């Protein structure tokens, strides 16, 4: 088995200002499947082709944003290994008990220097994707409801000291740096794209003075046609679009950035390339992010909202 350690993004808990409006958006417009509600009032969703019980959890609160972002790890030995490695590195961790989130095992939590709460867990109930276990069809009716992404794919987080967060993800959790954008003086890094797999990224950061901020949670689609169909569905449902449909130069993802009814940005995208542990990181200058097309290759500009609108 080649993929070990941290397997993939597992769940994101997102705050919404109105729960039923949030449910309508995530279930009926984005097209996630509702998989449960708990006694804290949280609503759980999964994308149609995900196998585990949940990947997006929403909670009503008086401000939007992200409560935590989690990665699934291989097994419980791996979870214990990372817990100890984080502690040895000097980071405090705590454990959330099994069942605190529906159908989810114990979670190890820690806070990155950027102010983001990150969780690791090994167990979540397998529910499958509603396809036959024997000789399955390539898709089923769930793949056509709303925008219907395949999976929750990655997030982009804004906060201070992204250099320290990068060090933890690389040195403790085994991520690799795939792309980066330099600061205008080229002395430091203003943005980082990191992978725990061979996706172009599983998590990304932009340097920002306020801690714990969310830029977007991203959802993967199968094709450019489906990205354009997503744009149609957004328009039909009055979803405010930020950028796109276009392509990012960075990661090469073909994308739309848009906002949920609470102002949390989300991304629907397809493509991007595969990375491998022997690849070297790609570097962009600050001008490259804007005029060089890193953010928006078609329009080659740094949209104002990119650096200023976060939740
Ligand atoms: C993504 C992605 C920028 C590139 C962003 C890339 C902000 O969000 O999913 O590929 O330059
Ligand atoms: Fe993204």
Write the layout of secondary structure elements.
Layout: E1 6-16, H1 19-29, E2 33-37, E3 43-46, E4 56-60, E5 65-73, H2 76-89, E6 94-96, E7 107-111, E8 117-121, E9 151-159, H3 162-171, E10 176-182, E11 189-195, E12 203-207, E13 213-220, H4 224-236, E14 241-247, E15 253-259, E16 265-271, E17 282-284, H5 286-289, H6 304-308
Parallel strand pairs: 1-4, 5-8, 9-12, 10-17, 13-16
Antiparallel strand pairs: 1-5, 2-3, 3-4, 6-7, 7-8, 9-13, 10-11, 11-12, 14-15, 15-16
List key phrases describing it.
alpha/beta; 9-stranded mixed sheet; 8-stranded mixed sheet; Glyas_Fos-R_dOase_dom; binds (2E,4E)-2-hydroxy-6-oxohepta-2,4-dienoic acid; 2,3-Dihydroxybiphenyl 1,2-Dioxygenase, domain 1; 311 residues; catechol 2,3-dioxygenase activity; Metapyrocatechase; binds fe (iii) ion; 34% strand; metal-binding
Could you explain how this protein is built, in words?
This protein has 311 residues and is of the alpha/beta class. It folds into 2 domains: 6-144, 2,3-Dihydroxybiphenyl 1,2-Dioxygenase, domain 1 (Roll), CATH 3.10.180.10; 151-308, 2,3-Dihydroxybiphenyl 1,2-Dioxygenase, domain 1, CATH 3.10.180.10. It is 18% helix and 34% strand. It is built from 6 helices and 17 strands. The chain has helices at residues 19-29, 76-89, 162-171, 224-236, 286-289, 304-308, and strands at 6-16, 33-37, 43-46, 56-60, 65-73, 94-96, 107-111, 117-121, 151-159, 176-182, 189-195, 203-207, 213-220, 241-247, 253-259, 265-271, 282-284. It has a 9-stranded mixed beta sheet. Strands 2-3-4-1-5-8-7-6 form an 8-stranded mixed beta sheet. The chain is globular, with a radius of gyration of 18 Å. The termini are far apart. The mean pLDDT is 97. Fe (iii) ion (FE) binds next to strand 9 and strand 13. Its EC number is 1.13.11.2.
């Amino acid at each position: 088995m080649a993929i070990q350690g941290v397997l993939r993004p597992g769940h994101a808990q997102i705050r919404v200002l109105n729960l039923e409006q949030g449910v309508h958006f995530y279930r009926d417009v984005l097209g996630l499947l509702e998989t449960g509600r708990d006694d804290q009032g949280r609503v759980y969703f999964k994308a149609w082709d995900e196998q585990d019980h949940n990947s997006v959890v929403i909670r009503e609160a008086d401000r939007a944003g992200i409560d935590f972002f989690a990665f699934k790890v291989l097994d419980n030995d791996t979870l214990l290994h990372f817990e100890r490695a984080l502690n040895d590195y000097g980071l405090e961790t705590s454990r959330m008990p099994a069942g605190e989130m529906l159908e989810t095992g114990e979670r190890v939590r820690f806070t990155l220097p950027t102010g983001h709460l990150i969780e690791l867990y090994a167990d979540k109930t397998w529910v499958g994707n509603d396809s036959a276990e024997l000789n399955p069809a390539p898709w089923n009716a769930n793949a056509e409801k709303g925008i219907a992404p395949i999976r929750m794919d990655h997030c982009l987080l804004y906060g201070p000291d992204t250099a320290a967060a990068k060090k933890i993800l690389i040195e403790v959790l085994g991520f690799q740096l795939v792309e980066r954008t330099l600061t205008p003086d080229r002395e430091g890094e203003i943005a980082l794209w990191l992978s725990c797999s061979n996706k172009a990224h599983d998590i990304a950061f932009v340097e920002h003075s306020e801690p714990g901020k969310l830029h977007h949670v991203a959802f993967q689609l199968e094709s450019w046609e489906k990205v354009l169909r997503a744009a149609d569905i957004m328009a039909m449902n009055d979803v405010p679009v930020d950028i796109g449909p276009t392509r990012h130069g960075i990661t090469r993802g073909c994308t739309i950035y848009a906002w949920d009814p609470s102002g949390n940005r989300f991304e629907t995208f397809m493509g991007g390339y595969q990375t491998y542990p022997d690849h070297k990181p790609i570097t962009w200058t600050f001008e490259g992010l804007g005029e060089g097309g890193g953010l928006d290759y078609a329009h080659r500009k740094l949209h104002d909202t990119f650096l200023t609108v976060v939740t």
